[in-house]
Specification:
This protein is of the alpha/beta class.
Length: 416
């Protein structure tokens, strides 16, 4: 069942995980699940999930394009990883090559189950798994990129989603609104679209993301009196960054102590921000850009509130992490994001694309510290009740166990 690495498909192993060619017999009897994403950045959304599956008795193999985040994720989660280049943009020739490599890889390692997600890996991986007749195929829908596309591109993306879903036995949605939107668009029949609990991929580590002191303000040059507005995520158009920066220019005129902290990186994806906006952000005296942060927990604690003016989501982890940290959140009515806030209780919901709405909501909360405190407390309690990682990951493991044949489930030996 081993695979010999080639220049196009390379293998690495996390600590304590035997290489495929040297596995023991008992290890090889455990069911093998392949988890695949397009870009190594997406591995950030798998933290906790991979370890939970491995601990439950699965052998876990992770596939994505090469990158340091892939290597770090495999090491931290204790799983095997294969690098396989997959283009994020529409690239027919490159996509055919990636599809052929995925077919070859799946045919050789013969997994019992696959889980592919993110648009390109979801399509190519699900298609390859169907070609190889993998007995159990799951497509995880983490969002609908087509929601911000128009014309021919939108039709192509919708067709790709439908094909990925058709190749899968189950389509697992991150949130209730995402499931509803997928059904309305005809991505898959309603009976094929599943939601675990109230949603979320991994849940939230409530001990790691919690209220408390932070050293981040000092690092950023902020004072204790500053009013810090936070943002966490990729710095792109679809995340609402242009509207947020436009709104901040007005907010800081009204509230001179306001500061904007952007926790994330300028992503080179199709929805990247233009050069002029990026330059303006990087040279703005009241805005701090952190770049990629492997652990944002301390950054949430430095915020007075968080804003995510996104146009589309699956279920934003950053909102749940901020809420667990006792930070009220302003986000949009967009698919996915509207599930992450209890309006007027844990935060505020606004329409996407309107800087005026951001200005009004931010000023409302900045001027009412007691309301922010109440919302922060309610937010942490709400996340604890519905999205604690133990609960979400237990539901995930049980879902995947239920898909296995009884004889395969019987061979699952919990790992450490």
């Amino acid at each position: 069942m081993g695979i010999i690495a080639s220049p196009s498909v390379q293998v690495s192993c996390g600590p304590g995980v035997p290489a495929p060619l040297t596995e023991g017999v008992s290890a090889r009897l455990r069911p093998l699940i392949v988890v695949g994403v397009t870009h190594s950045q997406s591995c950030l959304a798998l933290t906790g999930r991979l370890r939970a599956l491995r601990t439950a008795g699965f052998r876990v193999t992770l596939i994505s394009s090469p990158g340091r985040i892939l290597d770090r994720t495999a090491a931290s989660q204790g799983v095997e990883a294969f690098t396989l280049p997959i283009a994020r943009k529409i690239a027919p020739f490159a996509d055919l090559i990636s599809l052929a490599r995925l077919c070859r890889l799946l045919y050789r390692i013969k997994p019992d189950m696959v889980e592919f997600s993110t648009p390109k890996a979801g399509l190519l991986g699900s298609l390859a798994a169907a070609v190889c007749r993998i007995p159990c195929r799951v497509y995880v829908l983490r969002g609908l990129k087509l929601e911000t596309a128009k014309g021919l591109k939108r039709r192509i993306l919708l067709a790709a989603e439908r094909l990925a879903a058709a190749c899968a036995h189950r389509v697992l949605c991150n949130s209730e609104s995402l499931r509803s939107e997928a059904a309305a668009l005809g991505v898959a029949p309603a009976g094929k679209l599943h939601l675990l609990g109230e949603g979320s991929s991994n849940g939230v580590d409530m001990a790691r993301f919690s209220p408390g002191p932070s050293t981040v303000r000092r690092k950023c040059g902020f004072s204790a009196r500053d009013l810090v507005i936070g943002f966490v995520g990729r710095l792109t158009r679809d995340k609402g960054l242009p509207e947020l920066v436009q709104a901040f220019e007005v907010i800081r005129c009204v509230e001179p102590m306001a500061k904007l902290m952007l926790v994330g990186w300028f992503d080179a994806a199709e929805d990247h921000v233009d050069r002029h906006l990026r330059t303006a952000i990087e040279h703005h005296p009241q805005i701090r850009v952190t770049g990629f942060v492997p652990d944002p927990a301390d950054y949430y604690r430095a915020m007075d509130l968080m804003v995510l003016p996104t146009w589309r989501e699956g279920f934003p982890n950053s909102v749940l992490e901020a809420a667990a940290s006792g930070v009220p959140v302003i986000t949009t009515h967009s698919t996915g994001s509207r599930d992450s806030v209890v309006p007027e209780v844990t935060g505020l919901l606004i329409p996407p694309g309107y800087p005026e709405a951001i200005i009004e909501a931010v000023l409302t909360l900045l001027r009412d510290p007691e309301r922010r405190k109440r919302m922060g407390g309610a937010a942490r309690a709400w996340v604890m009740r519905h999205y604690a990682d133990e609960r979400v990951l237990e539901l995930t493991v049980e879902f995947y166990r239920s898909l296995l044949a009884p004889e395969r489930t019987a061979r699952m030996v919990p790992s450490i």
